[in-house]
Amino acid sequence: MAPTDASNEKLSQNCRPVTTGIYLNPSNMSFAESLRSEIYVDKSGLIAFTNRKLKTKQKFICVSRPRRFGKTMAAEMLVAYYSLSCDSREMFSSLSIANDKSYAEHLIKYNVIFLNITQFLRGSNNIDDILAKIRSKVVRDISRIYPNLLSPSPQDDLIDVLWELYAATGIPIIFIIDEWDCLFREYKTDSSAQKGYLDFLRDLLKDKEYVALAYMTGILPIKKYGKHSALNMFDEFSMTDPGMLAEFVGFTQNEVVALCDRYQMDYDEISRWYNGYKFPDVESVYNPRSLVTALLSRRCNDYWTRTETYEALRVYFKMNYDGLKDIVTNLLTGNRKKVDTSAFSNDMVTFETCDDILTLLVHLGYLGYDLETHEVFVPNKEISDQYVTVINRL
């Protein structure tokens, strides 16, 4: 049985972390870099949302967004806010979250485990190597940060060590898992590896009293395999239905208007290039990566689409599944197409109809989706230019 919240206030020095870690209670320097950047748009309102979910049945949150849509920065912000090894009071004092009634209650009060799954791919030959690396590195971090409390070896079971950490300190753990789905992109056709990874996450998180919050980010929604719907405790917020997190998908119109005024850029031109994503409660959403680059360079151009997903786009067009080329060509004229997104398998290889590919393109950011009409559309000039380039080179 873990100590109560009252006894938690009386923990001895042996129960406090002695330093920041790599995975357990990392430093707040990454978020500090975001704050020091020439353009920073305050999205700390997300913290008010996660604070409401802490230690409730809704504490499992999975956010899927396209690449370069600010997922990692949001994850780093949560680490800086929650981690009890960080002295982050000053950096949050001027942000909008400071005005929320939950602000002081949860600021730097938790053990935080931050995993960017892409970091574990290097030097790993298979899924077993990756999972073993995650387990051993986190256990090693715990032993280094709490040397007077626990002395586990890297071979000890991670879940057992987490239970011991929680029982000894009474401090719940917040898990921030960035790029959680990269293994589904790395092992696209290896269903055994994918199931093993899902089982690992389920065993780590599900029905564990030590979990105060689990916040995962990725490109794809959670993959489900029949009885291996292992992560069905997660509430999902995606490009097809961002729910209450719509304003945090990208930059909103008011934010962009203010930035255009500050940098003396033509709003209409910026809107033509980068606006176009829309949700029921947020009509205009801009790609943050492209917008920031355009403002700083003072020139609109195709910035975001020159990524690995562009190569993937060419692959799908070469397949021309159910006449994909003709469908997108029609969308480029300003038309829309009704799409059933419900049957999408949440991976990049399982397609039964063209709707599945169109749904994938929504999650990749290459199509916008209207949740009210269930229609897809080409969102802006940056995206349409890339479609034209791909089609012309087929």
Structural features:
394 residues, alpha/beta, five-stranded parallel beta sheet, globular
Structure explained in plain terms:
- The protein is α/β, with parallel strands linked by helices and 394 residues long.
- It has three domains: 5-237, Rossmann fold; 248-297, no CATH class; 308-392.
- The chain is 42% helix and 12% strand.
- The chain has helices at residues 5-8, 29-36, 45-53, 71-82, 89-93, 103-106, 127-145, 158-169, 182-186, 191-205, 253-263, 267-274, 288-297, 308-319, 324-331, 354-364, 381-392, and strands at residues 60-64, 111-116, 173-178, 211-218, 235-237, 251-252, 277-279, 282-286, 337-338, 368-370, 375-377.
- It is globular and about 65 Å long.
Strand residue content: 5-15%
Number of strands: 11
Helix content: 40-55%
State the separation between the terminal residues, measured CA to CA: 63 Å
Question: Which sheet architecture does the biggest sheet show?
Answer: 5 strands, parallel
Mean pLDDT: 90
Top-tier CATH class of the largest domain: Alpha Beta
CATH topology (fold) name of the largest domain: Rossmann fold
Going by helix content, strand content and strand pairing, the class is alpha/beta
Count of individual domains: 3
Shape: globular
Question: Which strand order does the major sheet show?
Answer: 2-3-4-1-5
The H/E string reads: HHHEHHHEHHEHHEEEHHEEHHHEHEEH
Unreliable spans: 1-12
Rg value? 22 Å
- Specify the number of helices: 17
CATH architecture classification of the largest domain: 3-Layer(aba) Sandwich
CATH superfamily of the largest domain: P-loop containing nucleotide triphosphate hydrolases
